[in-house]
């Protein structure tokens, strides 16, 4: 049976035109048992469409690990490292991650208490909630009415020492039923988005770049971001914006000398735009919460300087200035019409291009709403590739 592709079920809120090339449901193949030809086809489809959904899949953690590894055969460690260290204990990711004992690269995430699950006698899971991360929170009253927030827009990556995973697999084992919720952006725009309970929200990094005005495209193509050492420890004392797209600048980040031991050579500096290895397209791939500094190269020789921002280049170190500029570039792409909120069904497997999109946990569960997902991504064997000289000339 040949591989068949079906567009993802877009909600009414989505601008279908913008999702023409984003996301496909894949039929006619089992992701845990593919021939070499099928694996090659799925590889290219993933990079072409960014997110592939397989429905009604039975997948062991071993198969999920093998599928994830297929995209980067020499990668072995979970994207945040396999070994829990002192540094992890202080990280904001710490409570969200539980490892499947047989396959430590696969994490069990979700909500409520799960029993006898893949070798775990009992696992207490907690769906991350904006209430512990954002500066402001939705009132109890509005929460009752189903109002919620995006938790944190991100790339799955340690952003220190380890290289950002190429792909993430997210497999829904237990999905609680419940009424739909409404994401409120609470950033003064009045934007809202109705979503299924416990959705995972996706936005395209390609669209994030494509919709920018020329001046900001020029900044993006010339820009590099420097992440903090141990970014998830660094940001732990700070609070996020109500859209989950970055941190409020209140000076609360952990000072460098209080962080767990770190080395400058392991700090990550990445281009703002990452090149898709199959389509050659540019994707705006910045995890805004972890960024500390921004470098912008000067305009290339012969470029039109009229109206250009930072024509002679810049090195921005003021956190608020860095964050405001990134927010200006990233916020347009999380507009309600550009978000794909996946409506999870049990045994859905989502395979996504972690270097081509941003995603966010969404919503809030009660403790009795049990949810169990298996997540796998692997620290990559090579770094992301930035824009080519040709790209710089084209967009600068
Ligand atoms: Fe994630």
Could you describe the 3D structure shown?
This protein is an alpha+beta fold and 396 residues long. It has 9 helices and 21 strands. Strands 1, 2, 3, 4, 5, 6, 8, 19 and 21 form a 9-stranded mixed beta sheet that branches. A 4-stranded antiparallel beta sheet has the order 13-12-16-17. The chain has a 3-stranded mixed beta sheet with strand order 7-9-10. The longest helix is centred in the first third of the chain and has 14 residues, at 36-49. The mean pLDDT is 94. Bound molecules: fe (ii) ion. Fe (ii) ion (FE2) is lined by residues 154, 156, 359. Fe (ii) ion (FE2) binds at residues 154, 156, 359.
The average pLDDT score comes to 94
The shape is globular
Count of DSSP H/I helices: 9
The helix fraction, in percent, is: 10-25%
Bound molecules: fe (ii) ion
How would you spell out the order of helices and strands? Answer: EEHEHHEEEHEEEEEHHEHEEEEEHEEEEH
C-alpha Rg, in Å?
20 Å
Structural class: alpha+beta
Q: Which regions are unreliable across 5 or more consecutive residues at pLDDT < 50?
A: none
Q: Number of DSSP strands? A: 21
User: At the first level of CATH, what is the class of the largest domain?
Assistant: Alpha Beta
Strand percentage lies at 25-35%
Q: Report the sheet with the most strands, covering strand number, pairing sense and barrel closure.
A: 9 strands, mixed
The end-to-end distance, rounded to whole angstroms, is 46 Å
- The CATH architecture of the largest domain can be given as 4-Layer Sandwich
Domain TauD/TfdA-like: 21-376
Family: Belongs to the TfdA dioxygenase family.
Protein name: Clavaminate synthase-like protein
GO molecular function, one term: metal ion binding
């Amino acid at each position: 049976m040949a591989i068949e592709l079906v567009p993802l079920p877009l909600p009414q809120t989505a601008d279908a035109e913008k999702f023409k090339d984003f996301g496909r449901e894949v039929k006619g193949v089992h992701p845990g048992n593919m021939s070499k030809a099928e694996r090659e086809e799925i590889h290219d489809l993933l990079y072409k469409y960014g997110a592939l959904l397989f429905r009604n899949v039975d997948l062991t953690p071993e198969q999920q690990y093998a599928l994830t590894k297929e995209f980067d055969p020499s990668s072995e460690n979970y994207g945040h490292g396999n070994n829990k260290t002192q540094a992890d204990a202080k990280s904001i990711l710490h409570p969200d991650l539980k490892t499947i004992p047989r396959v430590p690269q696969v994490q069990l995430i979700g909500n409520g208490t799960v029993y006898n699950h893949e070798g775990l006698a009992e696992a207490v899971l907690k769906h991350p909630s904006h209430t512990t991360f954002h500066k402001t929170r939705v009132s109890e009253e509005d929460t009752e009415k189903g109002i919620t927030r995006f938790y944190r827009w991100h790339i799955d990556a340690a952003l220190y020492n380890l290289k950002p995973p190429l792909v993430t697999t997210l497999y829904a084992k237990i999905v609680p039923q419940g009424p739909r919720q409404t994401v409120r952006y609470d950033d003064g725009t009045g934007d809202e988005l109705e979503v299924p309970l416990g959705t995972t929200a996706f936005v395209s990094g390609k669209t994030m770049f494509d919709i920018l005005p020329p001046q900001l495209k020029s900044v993006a193509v010339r820009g590099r971001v420097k992440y903090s050492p141990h970014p998830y420890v660094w940001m732990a004392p700070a609070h996020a914006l109500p859209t989950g797209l970055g941190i409020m600048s209140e000076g609360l980040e952990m000072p460098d000398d209080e962080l767990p031991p770190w080395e400058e050579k392991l700090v990550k500096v990445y281009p703002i735009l990452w090149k898709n290895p199959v389509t050659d397209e540019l994707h705006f791939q910045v995890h805004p919460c972890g960024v500390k500094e921004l470098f912008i190269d000067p305009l290339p020789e012969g470029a039109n300087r009229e109206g250009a921002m930072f024509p002679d280049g810049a090195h921005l170190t003021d956190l608020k200035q860095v964050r405001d500029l990134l927010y200006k570039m990233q916020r347009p792409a999380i507009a309600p019409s550009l978000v794909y909120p996946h409506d999870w069904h049990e045994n859905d497997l989502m395979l996504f291009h972690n270097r081509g999109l941003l995603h966010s946990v969404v919503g809030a569960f009660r403790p009795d709403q049990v949810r169990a997902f298996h997540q796998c991504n692997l620290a990559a064997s090579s770094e992301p590739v930035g824009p080519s000289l040709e790209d710089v000339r084209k967009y600068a």
